[in-house]
Amino acid sequence: MTEIKKIAVIGSGVMGMGIAAQCANAGFKVDLLDIVPDGAKDRDVVAKDAIKKALKTDPAPFMHKSRAKYVTPGNLEDHMDRLADVDWIIEVIIERADIKQELYRKLAAVAKPEAIITSNTSTIPLSILTDGMDKARAERFAITHFFNPPRYMPLLELVTTEATDAGVREALRQVCDVALGKKVIDCKDTPGFIGNRLGTLWVQVATNAAEDHGLTIEESDALAGRHFGIPSTGIFKLMDLVGLDLGPYVSKSLYDNVNQGDMFREEYRESKLLGEMIAEGYTGRKGKGGWYRMTKIDGQRVKEVKDLKTGEYRPVQKAKGAALAVSKKGARAVFDAGDTLAQAAWEYMSKYFVYAADHALDIANSIFDVDEAMKTGYGFKWGPFELMDEVGPQWIADKLREEGRAVPALLDAVGAGSFYKVEDGERSYMLADGSFAKVVRPDGVLLLSDIKMRTEPVMKNSSASVWDLGDGVLCFEFTSMANSLDEGIMVMLNKTISAIEKGDEYKALVIHNEGKNFSVGANIGVMLFSANIAAWPQLQAGIKGGQDVYMKLRFGKFPVVSAPSGIAVGGGCEILMHSDAVQAHAETYTGLVEVGVGVMPGWGGCKEMVRRHLGNKRSARGPMPALVKAFELIGTAQVAKSAMEAQRDFLIINEKDTITFNKERVLFDAKQRALGLLDGYEPPEEETFRLPGATGRAAVDLALHDFHMKGMASDYDVHVGREVAMVLTGGDTDVTEE
Question: Where are the beta strands (DSSP E) in 279-425?
Fold first, then answer.
């Protein structure tokens, strides 16, 4: 199998730069090459400007600004020789087969024979791209289609053929899955592959329905909501996010490449309004705005939206209607609501269902792959077949027949059953012949959701569950609202700690869940309620109880590994800081944010932040530099925007901890880390600090006073800041005492 060490990206537009940044995030050295503009003094200006822009972009393509140094800018006229030692060349240029093929001929002349070349095309089949290509080069050519933004969207569609070298296929799958953190799905060589074949059709029929039924953009986006498992971006916000100028290219390319009679060709429309917007620079979030924009009216920032009838911007209005009123009851309730919105919803969602069922096995190896592609490429909660199971396949088929529409063979075959089933703790999906195949995970993937299907919890309450991962390792899962930390979690943590320390069956603990948030911290609502009724003893008991549990985690007789992903703030952050190790997903956002809501960290976060920064070899000597950094992070409620930032700048994640890029591999890696800590495990020794006391607080107080005078801090901000400083500097002590 080819080993990939060095990568080049050709094309530094939004996608090319994003792919280069993600490769750099993973530790690869990347050459980023683009054209030389006419009359340019700096011939590398296009690639250089892309890197500069990426460093200012929010959300950031780079996980840490230092990773920008891994990307070397260049141009396609002077620096083609750099490609001679590159292992993987990724083409990310305009969606025109003739231009791409011309580039491939130039690349073949300079690339080493064993180099892999791939295209990031979103719609053009591999057979067209390799037409006329040398056989040996074609064997090492594939499509690796990233989704935008490449750092954040998990899906990578891998398109190969029987002619593709098996080693190339495995090398790409390995590097994209493990190193870049992608959900790699094999696609058949068809136009648009899976995600864009179905997603582009969905957007087209949804916008057609908005036009035909006279819906506003707000109604359209609200209608495409959680009841269908669609994120808050809806339809028009999604187009703004992706880029309005990209959509027409993808749609036209798909139109040109699908067969006559394909539903997409029948539904395809070119929007005059959209064309005018693009010409005026309204290309979505990356431009002046898109279907939505922010503007100022009478000195106030106002969110505006395009009126589809007049073509003018107007203030955003709240969408209403019978379908939206019942949307919390689910998709079926929306379809049955009886108003115009319900009719529009059924019109475009039924076409989406039919198109998916008609083409699933033409474009993918299974309906499971189709569903996974739509979930990881578009952020949907359910793929089309999972959503049809939610609605009822038989109900959909009957409604189609009532309307005189053809029922796809797959939908007809499932009958009164479902596309998925769970038997003996194993999830299976339906095949074309009506039989079922088990879902098989790649080596190194361990999902808590799979474990939960086949086992019962070791113990549980309303806020937490504990699961047996095997090999003597337990997994502690938060199950409260937003995984907020409450009394139930503290009770269950105490029970879990006792079960491990007092028994022989279990010997290590992993703290992990598969929620959107690892934990949003303490349940502030409960704390506010206690304060409002002056239940101070209960409030103090909750704080003391949390401190005791966290200290048990830190100084227990067994290894504790936290495995977070998503948001881990406040008490959730403190969990990480009291663990022996953290096996974080790359997209972990963590920090001590309590000051932002007017309180201060109460479960050991202040102590841990001081300890870590005092021990940081990169910090200046003496207690004050470490305390100033700790105060800056806590006092301004900063949140690390990646696990890498949390490790390098915040020190929340230890230097020896490792980061997992693929979310589906986090739990497996965490379990292995816990097992690796067992041999000769000893709890950490307690540490003592020399802190400056009143002297240090005086310096902090001067800074707070300055912020207050400049209007950057309120009276209460100053009060909270002083309390934080009191803790960080050691209270009534001085630097001569421990």
Answer: 292-297, 300-306, 313-315, 420-423
Mean pLDDT of the 297-326 span: 94
Q: What is the Cα 16 distance to its own chain's centre?
A: 19
Complete edge-to-edge strand list for the sheet that includes strand 313-315: 292-297, 300-306, 313-315
Instruction: Decide if 217 contacts 210 (C-beta within 8 A).
Output: yes
The CATH classification number of 448-593+639-678 equals 3.90.226.10
Judge if pTM exceeds 0.85.
Answer: yes
Residue range(s) occupied by CATH 3.90.226.10 in the chain: 448-593+639-678
pLDDT tens string 75-105: 999 999 999 999 999 999 998 999 999 999 9
What is the C-alpha separation between 365 and 432, in angstroms, rounded?
10
pLDDT (tens digit, 9 = 90+) per residue, 628-676?
Answer: 899 999 999 999 999 999 999 999 999 999 999 999 999 999 999 999 9
Burial class (CB in 10 A: 0-12, 13-18, 19+), 712: exposed
pLDDT surpassing 90 at residue 433: yes
What's the number of CA atoms in the CB half-sphere (13 Å) around residue 158? 20
Question: Which conformational region is residue 202 in: left (phi greater than 0), alpha (psi within -120 to 50 degrees), or beta?
Answer: alpha
In angstroms, the Cα distances linking 271 to 166, 222, 235, 245, 255 are 43, 21, 15, 12, 15
Dist. CA 674–CA 670, nearest whole Å = 6
pLDDT range class, residue 621, cuts 50, 70, 90:
confident
DSSP structure class, residue 425 = T
Q: Which fold has domain 6-187?
A: Rossmann fold (3.40.50)
Mean pLDDT value of segment 688-709: 86
Q: Which CATH number fits domain 195-365: 1.10.1060, 1.10.1040, 2.10.50, 1.10.167?
A: 1.10.1040
The residue among 287 and 104 whose pLDDT is bigger is 104
Task: For residues 30 and 28, give the distance between their C-alpha atoms in angstroms, rounded to a whole number.
Answer: 6
Q: Where in the chain is the domain with CATH 3.40.50.720?
A: 6-187
φ/ψ bin of 624: left (φ > 0), alpha (ψ from -120 to 50), beta (otherwise):
alpha
Q: Is the pLDDT at 738 greater than 70, yes or no? A: no
Distance CA 441, CA 668 (A): 12
pLDDT score at 702? 85
CB 473 within 8 A of CB 508: yes
Q: Cα–Cα distance between 500 and 718 in angstroms, integer?
A: 44
pLDDT value of residue 692: 87
Question: What's the rounded Cα separation, in Å, for the pair 494 and 505?
Answer: 17
In the chain, helix, strand, coil percent, each to 5?
45, 15, 35
Token pair recorded at residue 403: 């309307």
pLDDT at 735 (0 to 100): 58
